[in-house]
Amino acid sequence: MENEKRFYERLESKGVTRRDFMKYCTFVTATLGLSHSFVPKVAEVFAAPSTRPPVIWLNLGECTGCSESLLRTMYPYADELLLEILSVEYHETIMAAAGHQAEEQLEAAVKKHSGKFICVVEGSIATNYKGGYGKIGNRTFLEIAQKVCPQAAATICYGTCASFGGVPAAKPNPGGYKGVGQALNMKTLNIPGCPPNPVNLVGTIVNYLLLGKLPDLDNLGRPLFAYGKTIHDQCPRRSHFENDEFVEEFGSKEATMGYCLYKVGCRGPETYNNCPIAKFNDGTSWPVEAGHPCIGCSQPNFWDEMTPFYQEM
Length: 313
Ligand code: SF4
Ligand code: SF4
Prior knowledge:
With about 325 residues, this protein is an alpha/beta fold.
């Protein structure tokens, strides 16, 4: 009760009302495909978490865009998510420690929480030349991941690089970059996207804390609640001539024709993600709504297989 009170006071001090917060909980509940009756339980996960799972966050071959996208999470604010709901034991980008001190912290956290921590990986892993194309503190990404990931209760790959190799794995790929599951030959939960949508990580964690298990996955290890449908299936431009709002905006059904971006290279029909529903920057917009074709960023090998962009498939 005291924790819950403090949580709401913290939100209020940041200008977030209870009403705003409940709206966000409704949104997360709907994203997870749960019934409305779960909204108070989802709110409880944020406001009064009964357990705080330890998290070790590895940054490997990446651009840190995934962490950046997470830091755009509004409710709960990133600090609430990282420090109150989870117990983040190691995250190079946001931790104060650096150099040897940081490396020692990683060793100590893995030892202390072995078998119990969630490992979130951002970035892919170089596998050629014994992993020599990517190192931290004189250890290759491959060595670090081989040591840390098998000791985790679950490994979550956040972003297309960690999930499937992403941009570092694009041709000619001299370093032999691969996604974590492929490089380590192990099962991972994948939240691809370049960048991924933070709500899909929040939803995965809420699912874990609320139902005590990770969400159901598709054959590429992606949570079905977020990657169960194609962009095209959910796109408002697809139903432009059936959508009353669009018809009203354009004046007639005929005037809405040609609104679809397929002819300028939209990969929405081949891409599985929930961008049209979840949107970015707290529901402000998403690429196709803003007039840019989907480039298929959450699919394996998108950089090689979806290019050249801006050309009809
Ligand atoms: S804009 Fe893209 S996702 Fe939307 S209807 Fe056209 S092809 Fe499908
Ligand atoms: S619209 Fe397509 S390219 Fe854009 S973020 Fe979503 S999946 Fe990626």
